[in-house]
Structure formats: structure tokens, C-alpha cells
Amino acid sequence: MADAVLIVDDDADIRRFLGLTLRHDGFEVHEAVDADDALEQARAIDPDVILLDVMMPGVDGYEVCRRLRADPRTQETPVILLTAKGRAEDKIRGLDVGADDYVVKPFDPEELVARVNSVLRRSRALRDVSPLTGLPGNKRIDAELRRLVSEAGSGFAVLYADLDDFKVYNDHYGFMRGDEVLRYTAEVIRTALERHPSARNFLGHLGGDDFIAVTSPDLVEEVCREICQTFDRGIAEFYDAEDAERGYVEAVDRYGERRQVRPVSISVGVATTAHRDLQTQWEISAVATEMKHLAKGVEGSRYEIDRRRGFERGHDRDED
After folding, report:
1. Is the predicted pLDDT of residue 48 greater than 70, yes or no?
2. 95 falls in which pLDDT band (50, 70, 90)?
3. Fewest CB atoms within 10 Å of the CB: 88, 132, 159, 171?
4. Are the C-beta atoms of residues 34 and 59 closer than 8 Å to each other?
5. Distance (Å, rounded) from C-alpha 303 to C-alpha 227?
6. Which CATH code fits 4-127?
7. Full-prediction pTM beyond 0.90?
């Protein structure tokens, strides 16, 4: 699907010129002639980027940008200001009201398209980042897995990690302290990857307590072992002193029974090309998920690496 651009300018010739330029480069173009029209269309069509003229009669572009940023429906939409004013103070004013870029008229068509594409790239990257951990989100994880399987003959190992009894922790201590545990988890995995550098290294946050990491097949066992050991060494710091000393918290399960729950642990399942080919991102996901469920079947932090050759059944478990 083509990216949608909303051009906001009271000058019909400028709108026509910009429209021809952008359509030629494959963009879907919409036009607005003044502030009210711009705000209405921005809410209705949800454009991927807005080209906004500063000098318009009535409400100027600075105020339109300010209103766009104040509206939850448009506050994240990238805005590029268009103006004949090139003074530094004008640019600063535009950035202060929330503009993402600033283009001075007359502008070169190729430069304008390049700036639009640059703003779109930055916007996509920011939108697909977990606000909690700052890690790449689902779309970038999917793109990374697709890239791995597209590179014929390249070896990789994909780790699928999540936390055990994290819901109990969240319910007991509250979601704000739960968020601290998730940030800790991200840092533990990131540090393990950094301590075992590989051109394959990647870390993403699927959401909740689910993380995806990529490393080389020859490093995956060391990385997994370090993740589990480091996580266990530090998790007690996130408990109240009496709970940490006792070694559990009390929680009511789904059946209404009160039980003692040990500290949160981490389970990691690994899909790797060390023993067989993985043809699609779906196969990677299925194998890593299967291994993670095996790891969760044993109490405490643990990892399981798929060692099957071809489609042989059975599992060779690792001992931490």
C-alpha cells in the first residue's frame, strides 16, 4: 500500500506541483487548503506524513502543527513544514511546535521526496519500538526472521524467552514494579548478547514478558546459560526483603486456593540451524515455542535447544 501524504497549502499551484512530484514517486496524495480543512482531513484519512505550509491566511502552519500535536489521533503523525522563511529562529519555532522537519521554498523536488522518505523511516522505527524497553517490536522482529530465512546457507539461532509466574509478581507488587522486572529482563538478555558478540545478534520485545533474540548457533548455549544464571542472581532484588528471605510470595490461584509461589524465573526455547534447515519464520516460531514449553516444564530458569535432525522426534535436553 502506498504511503499517504496530506499537502496543506492555500496556493493551488504549489499543491499541484507537490502532488505531481509525490504521485510520480508512488505516494497517495491528499490536499487541504486551510487549517480547518487540514485538521479535518488529518483525522479522517490518518496520513503517513503531512506537508504543511507555514504562511496561510487565518490560522498559520505553526498553529496547525500545535493543534495536530495536541490531538491524540494525530499527535504521532510526522509533519514537514514548508515555508519561504529560512531564518534560524523560524526553523526553531517550527521544531518547538512539534514539526519533524523544515523545507525552505523554493525546494528541489528530489530533496523534498528524500526528506519525506527520511521522516517516514524515522517514524516507522519509532512506532515499532517498545516504549517500555526501547527494543524493536513485532514488525521489526518479523522482518528480522524473514531476513534470516532469506539468506540461504546462513546459520542462526533464535531464542524465545518469557518469564514464569510473572503474573503473580504483577498482581502482588503492582504493574509499575512489574515493568521494572521487564526492563531488567531486557538488560540481562542484551548484556548476554553483548558478552558473546556475533554478526547475528538481535534483540526484540514481542510485548508483555515475551522476548526474541538472535545469535550464532555456536554461541547460543553460552548465551542461554548466561541469561538464566544472571537472571537468577539478580531477581531477588525486585522483591521486598521479607519475601526475598522467605523465598516465595503467597498468591491465590485461579481456583481460589492460596499457594506459595517461588521468585520469577526465565524460560528460553531455541530454534537453530545447527542441525537442520529452518525454511520460514513460522517454522522458527513453532520450534522455538515448542522448546520454550519444554523449558517451562521444569521449575526454575532453564533453556531448551532443539537438536533434532530433519523431522526426527524426541528432544535432547540441556542441563544448566
Report:
1. yes
2. confident
3. 88
4. yes
5. 9
6. 3.40.50.2300
7. no
Domain ranges (residues) in the chain: 4-127, 138-305
Query: Which H or E run includes 109?
Result: helix 109-127
Q: What is the 8-class DSSP label of residue 96?
A: H
How many CA atoms lie less than 13 Å away from 106 in the CB half-sphere? 3
Q: Concatenated DSSP letters for 57-83?
A: SSS-HHHHHHHHHHSTTTTTS-EEEEE
Q: Average pLDDT in the 205-230 region?
A: 96
Q: What is the pLDDT of residue 306?
A: 96
Find the angle CA(209)-CA(211)-CA(213) to the nearest 5 degrees.
165
Contact 34, 56 (CB under 8 A): yes
Which 3 state secondary structure label does DSSP give 204?
A: strand
Task: Note the Cα 50 to chain centre separation in Å.
Answer: 23
pLDDT recorded at residue 296: 94
CA atoms of 9 and 55, how far apart (whole Å) = 8
pLDDT cut 70: percent of the chain above it: 93
For the domain made up of 138-305, give the CATH fold.
Alpha-Beta Plaits (3.30.70)
Cβ(139)–Cβ(128) below 8 Å = yes
| Separation between Cα atoms, residue 164 and residue 209, nearest integer Å | 9
Give which of 37, 44, 46 is closest to 15, Cα–Cα.
Answer: 37
Confidence (pLDDT) at 230: 98
